[in-house]
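By way of example, what follows is a protein record of this kind.
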Amino acid sequence: MMFGATAQPIARARSAFVALLLVLLPGAAEAKEPSIPWQICRTLLAAFELAPVDLVSESRIRSPSERSGVRFDWFRRETSGTNTAHFLICYFLPLEQTNGRWQLFALDNDQYGHFERYDIQQLYKLIHMRLRSSDVTPETSDPATIVWLHAAQQAINALSLGALYGLIAIGFTLAYAASGVMNLALGTFFAFGAFQAFFAYLLGEAWFGQGWLAVVAVGLLLSAIMGAAAGVASWQTAFAPLTRRVPMAQRGQAALVVATGLLIFGQEAMRLGQGPKTRWLPYHDNSLTLTQVPGYELVVSRGHLIVFLCTLALAGALAWYLRRTRAGLSLRAVADDPKAAALLGVSVVRTTAGAFLLSGALAGVAGGFAFLHYGAVNFHIGLITGFKALTATLLGGIGSVGGALIAGFLVAFVEAIAISLGQSVWKDVWVFALMVGVLVFRPNGLFGRERETPR
């Protein structure tokens, strides 16, 4: 108790020193503690401490082009009668990247370490649960039950994320099966689709108000059209001339260079056309509580259901298209042996263009799903997503549409496991390590097979 008695003067002196420092530092006119970042960080403090002692804060608000931060320091009364010091630091993106909105992107805490955006979402969920069940003490919860519910929540999250990876991976597979080239620009087409969904949201908000169903329908339609147009354009302007002029032995290397150029071209075009800012959807709590226990709440959002169910519907429609339609059978024939298909009257050029159209449409609609579900889009959103989808393509086995979809879910589940174990900053490392391991032991992927007929 003696430490607790001296803690308050020390905390007040430290707060006064920080205030004096902020006044003396250059740019002190902008260093006044704003209400919005402070309130955001103060809200998240409830996830770490319900009853802080001698709470003091410090805000460092930079220019609109720089990141800002808020820090809280407090003491916790332990059961032994002593007080222990703790801190929480909230980091905010530059205002010029977020359309003037304060956007939290990371946290640091002395007890639990670093938190990324997904972890912050879980903290908001924890706070929401505490507010709804404040009359129930967390000690009444069974720890094993919370562990299983947390695992179930990660599985739900992985299903929607895996659906996005799977759609793009199917696009990679279709384009490669028809042409023998890997169109890396599908990651850029994914970003195109996300931006189209953003524009559709603006139009839907102006024309339909808050009618989310109309916004979703228009957004996904525009995303698919944009992706399909980009896919056909990439084939006609880049890959078709390549396949006509470059010998088969050198085509793989040349196609890789061309695909990389298309990826960078599309990404830079978006950066110059739309700017580096991140566009955000307004937050809407559309989650449905599946079950709740003291200490945890298992939820599923409308976005989870839309992305997962629509992906299954698209996969089923694609399977029917490949097996029951003339165009689908032509695509399968070209994938097996383009010269034999041409001898049988199949237009290889037209069929390949159709495959690139389908692959671009799938990537574009995946981008629309991603924006409407996660609520953010920027010019580089498709870079890492595209390479993870490519990882799913290689894991599933190049040429296997079903394998690409299954591997997309596998990649998402690997990320979910990393997050569940508190290794969210390592999740990308886990994913690409899985790809390397599988390709070392199974070069054809999990569901791939050796091509019996050379191209």
